Amino acid sequence: MSQLGFIFKEMFFPNRDRHAIPPLDGAMRPNSELDDVETIARFDVPPVGLTSDGVGGVYCAVGNVIMKRNDAGLFEDFEGLDGEISALAADGQNGLVAGVVGKGVRYIGGSAAGTEWTHAGGKSILHPTAIGIAPDGSIWVAEGSQQNAPKDIIRDLLEHGNSGRIIKCSASGETKVITQGLAYPSGLVCQSDGSVLVTEAWKHRLLRFRDDGRAPEVVVPNFAGYPGHLSTGIDDGFLLCFFAMRTHLIEFLLEEDTYRKNMIDHVPPEYWVAPSLDCNETLLTPLQFGRIKVHGETKAWAPPRSYGLVAHFDSEAIATDSYHSRTNGETHGITSSCFANGELLATCHAQKSIVRILSGQKEGQNV
Prior knowledge:
The chain has 367 residues and is mainly beta. Helices cover 9% and strands 40% of the residues. The protein has 4 helices and 28 strands. The protein has helices spanning 3-12, 153-158, 248-253, 257-266; strands at residues 38-42, 48-52, 58-62, 65-69, 75-80, 85-90, 96-100, 104-108, 116-117, 119-120, 123-124, 128-133, 139-143, 164-169, 175-182, 185-190, 196-200, 205-209, 217-220, 225-232, 238-245, 293-294, 297-298, 308-313, 319-325, 334-340, 343-348, 353-359. A hairpin with a 2-residue loop joins strand 3 and strand 4. The N and C termini lie far apart (42 Å). 43% of the residues are buried.
């Protein structure tokens, strides 16, 4: 941002919402819980869309294959599709709904097997990021971006992406655009009262939608990280994954249009000054993050380039528990989570794995 633009904003909009990064305190206080978890599955590519059908079945997507956990606790091939699967939801009645990059959303199994939704509002459904099944059977879909695929999520952040949509799909194949122009809606979960919670990643907030024409309610206006996948929690609460954390450097960089554009145009993506879902570093990894090392070891409290965080919120959207992998950890880039069979499971992008965070918990259904 130019100096003139900065002065203009300070003079004419001094009380604008600056979205300062809030501290991680209370139930969100950093810990190392995610670094002590058990890995129950590893894959060649990062898994996504972890979901439970509420009756014992646990599913995830790996590339273009839906995997199901068998009685021995191992994940095996369940269904292969003709494209990369970016979102997954179970209806609890032997049916799954999958989002396929570039091809829309389709029902697999169950009474609605074969139903597809490929367009909404006159545009193709290209990049689904989250799917929820409402109590009335309707399908709600979050499309993160019209321009960038899920694998290019960081590019969408740096380009100030705001082409995300929320789409409602009916069993008859019809679609309705509930809203558009969102800054990367990356998580969605349907509530028992008919409302739908949606995370808007680049505005780091949580919204509540209803299909009644009203503007969405801002439930949580400002998170310390970029909120992603949502799933049903305990006692009408919800689980929320943060795939990366905000830092002061990135907040500053997002205001510097010329520098950011030059970086995107001339620097390989893996070396961008930007958040990352991976914790693997090389000598070429950007050092402009205030990372502090002592005797060659990164300190846990150093500003994070990558991070791992899953949090549970109650029905009032107040955090009750959180599980972290800090800057010096390795369980980074948590992209989905769910309660299943008394366990809390999560997918880890950095390790291309599924981890068991807790066992013996009350089961929730990812709907």
